[in-house]
Amino acid sequence: MPPLAGQGRCLESVPWRGAPVSPGETTLEVSVSHNDHTGSTLAAHVRQVTGLNPARCYQCGKCSAGCPMAAEMDFRPHDVLRLIQQDKREQLLSGESLWLCLTCETCTARCPNECDPARVIDTLREMVWRDNGGAGAPRHIRAFHKSFLKQIRRSGRIFEFGLVAGYKMRTGSLFSDVGAVPGMLKRGKLALTPTRIKGLDEIRRIFDKCAAAETDAEEP
Amino acid sequence: MKLGYFPGCSLHATAREFDESLRAMAPRLDLELDEVEDWACCGATSAHNTNHLLSVSLPARTLAISEAQGHESLLAPCAACYSRLAYARHALEADPSLCDPVKDAIGREPPTTVQVLSIVRLLADLAPRIREKVATALDGVQIACYYGCLLARPAELNDVGSVEAPTAMEDVVKAVGATPVVWNQRLECCGGGFSLSRKASVVRLSRSIVEDARAAGAAALVVACPMCHLNLDFRQKAIARRSGERADMPVFFLTQLVGLALGMSATELGLGRHYVSTADFVARLSGQEGAAESASEEIKEVG
Amino acid sequence: MARIGVFVCHCGENIGRTVDCAQVAEACGSFPGVVHSVDYKYMCSDPGQLQIKEAIKEKGLTGVVVAACSPHMHEKTFRKAAAAAGLNPFLCEMANIREHCSWIHEDRARATAKAIDLTRFIVEKVKRNQPLVPISIPVERRALVIGAGIAGIQAALDIADGGREVILVEKEPSIGGHMSQLSETFPTLDCSQCILTPRMVEAFQHPRIKLMTYSEVESLEGYIGNFAVTIRKKARSVDDELCNGCGDCQSACPVKKIPSEFDAGLGKRTAIYVPFPQAVPNIPVIDRERCTRFKAMRKGKKKEVCGRCLKACGREAIDFAQEDRLITEKVGAIVFATGYQLYSIGEEQPREHLSGYGEYGYGEIPDVIDGMQFERLASASGPTGGRIERPSDGKEPETVVFLQCVGSRDPQKGIDYCSKLCCMYIAKHTMLYRHKVHHGRAVVFYMDVRAGGKGYDEFVRRAVEEDGAEYVRGRVSRLYRAGDKVRVCGFDTLSGEPLEMDADMVVMATAIQPQPGIESLAQKLSVSYDKSGFINEAHPKLKPVETNTAGIYVAGACQAPRDIPDAVAMASAAASKVLGLFSNEELERDPCVAQVDETTCSGCFHCERVCPYGAVEHLEVRDRGGNLIKVIAKVNQGVCQGCGTCQATCPSKSVELLGFTDAQIFAAINSL
Amino acid sequence: MSEATATRTPPAVDAFEPKIIAFVCNWCTYTGADLAGTSRLQMAPNVRIIRLPCTGRIDPLFIVKAFERGADGVIVSGCHPGDCHYTAGNFHARRRFAVAREIMGFLGIDLDRVTFSWVSASEGGKWSEVVNETTARVRKLGPFNTYRDLVAGS
Ligand SMILES: Cc1cc2nc3c(=O)[nH]c(=O)nc-3n(C[C@H](O)[C@H](O)[C@H](O)COP(=O)(O)OP(=O)(O)OC[C@H]3O[C@@H](n4cnc5c(N)ncnc54)[C@H](O)[C@@H]3O)c2cc1C
Ligand SMILES: Cc1cc2nc3c(=O)[nH]c(=O)nc-3n(C[C@H](O)[C@H](O)[C@H](O)COP(=O)(O)OP(=O)(O)OC[C@H]3O[C@@H](n4cnc5c(N)ncnc54)[C@H](O)[C@@H]3O)c2cc1C
Ligand code: SF4
Ligand code: SF4
Ligand code: SF4
Ligand code: SF4
Ligand code: SF4
Ligand code: SF4
Ligand code: SF4
Ligand code: SF4
After folding, report:
1. Which of A89, B62, C314, C414 has the fewest C-beta atoms lying within 10 Å of its C-beta?
2. Per residue, what are the HEC states of C22-44?
3. How far is C358 from chain A (nearest CA, A)?
4. What is the DSSP string of C440-481?
5. Which of B84, B117, B150 is the last residue of a domain?
6. Is B266 found in the same domain as B130?
7. Confidence check: pLDDT of C232 > 70
């Protein structure tokens, strides 16, 4: 039955079924907010995956004020929340800003409303990665993630030389940091042969089961 | 005390000195490190940014093995690994609906008991023992303790004190006689995993960290994260080029600093593997004529 | 044998359209005990009421049931009519066949059947009704006001001017509350002291106000009209009869570096002190925690140290041996007016679940201050004589940044609500600052400007348009020291640009919170409070100054963040409630209260545990020889509000709610 | 199917029409039901209200008694948690009903026949929902004969 207009509280009768009552429960709010959390909006998606309600954000900008990458982003963390509220999917998901977030959690630590922008951004990135392999991500960052995950799948651990090599191959930026390799070798910081763990089949299984990563790992 | 040990990928490569110094120091503090058998990479930022389940499952496997090995606590010196492992433990506890998919992915029972421990927490807890065993007190040496992002945040995973004003690293630094400087950038991010993929950002962010530490009068930075180390040490030349300063702010892993105070040698501590030379710092420390040279000799040899 | 009369109302067409009223009357006529049953077009009209009166007299009715509208509409009307005809009004009840029947159904047959059922319920109940007499309780026509801020002072003055005695209790050495600390006040920028001090003196001199400063409520007993309150008069160490307020003792005291509470920590005071020069009463008190003599005594030293105040006092008013005194007073009404405190910016928080401001330095950056400290800096009577100087080096700040909503509207820190005052006083601060430092920059970081009072928005606009305050919309992420400045990391959400700036001083509008210890005081008075500790009003719109305990009223910032106009309006409203109560010598109360059957009560006191009003008392039953037989429950009818929870809880069915006894309700159910 | 339409079409003569007793508090639900009336919200005519000062006054025995006397369903409704006119009466009511639920199971009363709800004075709409929903539910369950049969059998 659709709720009557203008009434904030949930109109289903709320039978007192369920667990025994404890004192703390008296403050339990039985009203259900009419914010969409089941539909197909971005906000609903975020809410389903994370339990966070993007409508809580009141656009104070405290997240962006502390974000180390805000200066380089088109959409700062508070913009991300706003675009979710407005359901501007295309605009938000195709941009590169999401991929510039370092997950430093500064925004999350300071958000007065516990909106957890870092987690929200993670959720969106994951969504994009699954949908299109992170097409909107800056080329270098995308290449890095791909190489990284491929490495793990292949050997169970990161073999940094291989990682760097793979990454350079993907990005074609063969010469940046080129001087670094000899220095690293000299300092014993680069192993030339990869370590492979024994339980590689386990690792593959993990990747396969966590399906979204699969496509990336298969890519050459 | 016996601890499970998860070195993580970096400690086998770019942050070898972190591993070396920790292993060398352990017996002196009566620690026994029992490496997790056949551990795998924690997935780091790449898994985390792209696939939530993967980012929990990879560490969950390692934790499950550790638990099977009988570890009550698992030490993860790398801040990034710590963060991922601690997150996986937390997520599995906080969100029971994750348990089944994770169990399915790793083909083992998800971990339920093992506690993940950061190196900062461990050393802060051992501060009294460290204080007792100090051989070369770092009296009066000004140190900038750098936490970066992953040690203090998010609040649920923080084991170093309060989110905005942690003290654990300072406690360790005080235990070896040094003076932690009061500075502003200790909780700001250095650019983390963008070291390879977005160098300009890293240089911008790390620069303000190095400069602030210098302005506060620090003789050295101390870190507990291979990424921080890479960005502040390896990238310091690039930073210096921008700011017109010299790349002369040594960056130590916390274990190295404690090791120095315990009287361990530069070789034991892998001091020669740094990009910014540690020789001057070590020489000043021993404060003896000739010691400086032998210290720098030692360091050069490794180099 | 019951003789019940049933009167079925058509309400014009309202009932008659769907309910066959004649049929209802006919059916009711056949119920056992019903001797008279009629229907009529408008029962509440004069002729309708007359019918009832006549029937009562002529037919000797022992009960009346009016099947009509909701009892919330006309119960009073019909009970009055019954009483006029000599029937006890509580033997008259209504069956609701309009709101609960004719208006919500269309099927005439089923609505009529339902109307008959509903009326039968009430008939069965009324048959078992007992005549009840409204309870009357004598009223002690004196009031207690707790807290002597502007709200408490105003309430006390209004009650006293209305001709009743007031006991005004203040826990600090002086009355005045926070308003005495303010410099100038929005929205008119008049000097706070200038308008407050006359009120303080008036309260002090009023023949009907008994002022008890440095005192707190220890315990409370009784109920509306009849409270007995015990007040602890804390030892002042100065005899208030002898002291003439000359101040010689203060000049003599060697302990001079105690941060002054009145100056919000920016100024200093001595161990024997009056909080501020205009204090009322102007009698010092010795801070026993800080006084060297008392410190030595606590350490067990025999020798009497210091005592300079004693020597300095020409009137021998100093009394080190003075002790706390407990005084019991009888009052009929209480006004709760304990005011507020500010959220601490340090790590230590007054309430457990809150967290402080680490990102703003936990109060460790000296030039980051709170709003009250700014008031003291701007006040002519303040530690700087009204010159704006920053705490670290006394320099005049060239750039002052103001942060709004610090701790407020911040669920993460544990406070969801808006503190209501800060938008306004920050605007005021920018003006005061710019009036004093003409070339200075005043930058405000805000989220919304909430200025919903008379002349309030105009006031804020003036700050922006005339006084050049710069408003930036965004919360600040972090403050830290940059040289001798404070670096402010903000974001301008309107231009979409990060905004970092260096300030010479930062003023934070920290959240308004209730006074510490308010919970325990509220528990003593059994009034309820919300999760933040603010006192709950009985109804947010219609009973804004009543609490849910009869006879206790609330005024000012202890109920919610309130500015001076609000606090004063509430205080006057509370006072008029008190005076209204005191206009009667006796109180009449609804007699639907609980009553314990002494013979069956086993003294288990389950009733006592569930009673929300603490109405259940212990009664010792003794035999003739005075030997205790048992202790049983007794309901204090002055306190009982008639909820009936005790009755439903009592395992031996020994307590009954008059008007809703088991017999009455089961009779209704049985008639189903 | 919406209950409102169900009531507009008169049911077949022999169709089962449940009898439902509602124990409601004077301050919230009773007033809410008044509001439903003033707003002319049409609802199933199966519910008979008994007014009590507070849900705290409701003895679980009332419910049992109602069933014994031929009710097919019962509604218990009062103020929202935290809104109780008497501060805590409805809190005690909830505690008591947590226990009562078990007793009712023991007494052979299907808990689906009892609705506990909170309806405030301003929720006329919600009250009509509660009435309609309960009526529909109890109608589906059919008449409550357990006790009647018992009486008949003895
Ligand atoms: C920085 C700042 C600036 C402000 N500027 C303005 C302004 O310009 N204009 C304006 O209208 N408002 C202003 N206000 C608001 C104003 O201060 C309050 O509206 C007013 O003080 C509230 O008065 P009150 O009597 O309710 O509370 P208070 O002033 O807090 O008084 C309460 C009194 O009760 C006493 N008390 C507390 N507990 C007990 C107890 N248990 N027993 C006995 N006594 C007790 C306290 O000691 C105190 O004396 C400002 C507030 C702040 C924080
Ligand atoms: C759209 C809207 C929604 C609102 N919603 C809410 C809400 O949700 N909650 C809330 O708390 N408030 C709300 N309010 C505010 C609320 O309506 C007012 O606070 C309240 O009605 C004010 O009551 P009053 O008695 O002061 O004035 P009024 O309600 O205006 O009553 C004044 C009375 O005086 C009579 N009168 C006028 N002049 C004379 C005269 N010369 N001689 C004799 N009689 C005269 C008028 O006819 C009128 O009956 C709302 C207001 C609006 C406009
Ligand atoms: S800090 Fe939180 S509430 Fe403020 S803008 Fe960012 S996400 Fe929104
Ligand atoms: S987590 Fe991402 S969005 Fe948040 S502050 Fe760090 S970099 Fe910015
Ligand atoms: S008594 Fe009630 S129902 Fe009857 S006419 Fe008056 S208002 Fe209408
Ligand atoms: S010196 Fe004596 S009379 Fe004067 S203020 Fe002090 S106590 Fe009072
Ligand atoms: S005894 Fe001394 S320290 Fe104490 S109040 Fe008197 S003068 Fe001050
Ligand atoms: S009054 Fe203004 S500054 Fe204060 S909490 Fe409310 S919105 Fe924030
Ligand atoms: S619950 Fe009943 S028996 Fe127990 S003390 Fe109260 S009235 Fe007496
Ligand atoms: S009826 Fe309510 S208020 Fe009165 S004694 Fe019983 S529980 Fe207390």
Report:
1. C314
2. HHHHHHHHCCCCEEEEEEECCCC
3. 10
4. -EEEEEES-----STTHHHHHHHHHHTT-PEEEES---EEEE
5. B117
6. yes
7. yes
Q: How far does Cα C16 stand from its chain's mean position?
A: 47
Q: Is B5 helix (H, G, I), strand (E, B) or coil?
A: strand
Structure confidence at residue B299 (pLDDT): 57
B266 lies in the same domain as B208: yes
**Count of structural domains, chain B:** 2
Asked whether the beta carbons of residue D40 and residue C104 sit closer than 8 angstroms, the reply is yes
Q: What average pLDDT does the segment C467-493 reach?
A: 96
From the alpha carbon of C635, which atom of ligand 10 is closest? 5
Across the strands, what pairs with C137? C587
Nearest to A24 by CA among D82, C518, C613: D82
Note the pLDDT tens digit of each residue in B188-198.
Answer: 999 987 877 88
3-class DSSP state of B270:
coil
Would the CB atoms of A62 and C493 count as touching at under 8 Å?
no
Chosen domain end from B117, B151, B166:
B117
Domains of chain C, first to last: 4-127 (3.40.50), 148-226+327-339+515-581 (3.50.50.60), 235-323 (no CATH), 344-513 (3.50.50.60), 590-670 (3.30.70.20)
Residue nearest to atom 2 of ligand 10 (CA): C643
DSSP state of D49: E
Q: What is the predicted pLDDT for the residue at D68?
A: 87
Task: For residue B201, give its domain range.
Answer: 125-302
Q: How far does the CA of residue A10 sit from the closest CA of chain D (Å)?
A: 8
Using a CB-CB distance cutoff of 8 angstroms, which residues of chain B are in contact with residue C358? 162-165
Closest CB to A110 among C359, C411, C498: C359
* DSSP letters for B122-170: HHHHTHHHHHHH-SS--TT-EEEE--TTTTT-SGGG--SB-SSSB-HHH
Q: Encode burial over C471-493: b for 16+ CB neighbours within 10 A, e otherwise.
A: bbbbbbbbbbbeeebbbbbbbbb
Query: What six digits make up the tokens of B290?
Result: 């000739």
A31-77 pLDDT tens trace: 334 455 567 899 999 998 889 999 999 999 999 999 999 999 999 99
Q: What is the pLDDT of residue B50?
A: 87
Sign (positive/negative) of CA torsion C552, C553, C558, C559? positive
List the structure tokens of C198. Answer: 């006359």
Q: Where are the alpha helices (DSSP H) in chain D?
A: 3-8, 29-38, 60-68, 89-106, 124-141, 146-153
- Residue C52 phi, psi dihedral angles, 5° rounding: -65, -45
**Does residue B100 sit in the same domain as residue B132?**
no
The nearest CA of chain D is from the CA of C495 a distance in Å of 43
Find out whether the beta carbon of A145 lies less than 6 Å from any atom of ligand 3. no
Structural domains in chain D, CATH included, are: 17-153 (3.40.50)
C489 in contact with A, Cβ within 8 Å:
yes
Distance, CA C643 to ligand 10 centroid (Å)?
5
Complex-level ipTM: 0.78
Better-predicted residue by pLDDT, B204 or A28: B204
In contact, A122 and B52? CB cutoff 8 Å: yes
User: Among residues A78, A83, A9, A95, which one has the least CA distance to residue A45?
Assistant: A83
How far is ligand 10, taken at its centre, from the CA of residue D58, in Å? 13
**Cα–ligand 7 centroid distance for C264 (angstroms):** 22
Report the 10 Å Cβ neighbour count for D102.
12
Backbone angles phi, psi at C529, to 5 degrees: -135, 160
Per-residue pLDDT tens over the stretch C313-324: 999 999 999 999
- Distant-in-sequence, close-in-space partners of C205: CB < 8 Å, separation ≥ 6: none
Q: Which domains does chain A have, with CATH numbers?
A: 3-131 (1.10.1060), 139-218 (no CATH)
**Pairing mode, if any, of strands C258-259 and C268-269?**
antiparallel
Share of chain D above pLDDT 70, in %: 71
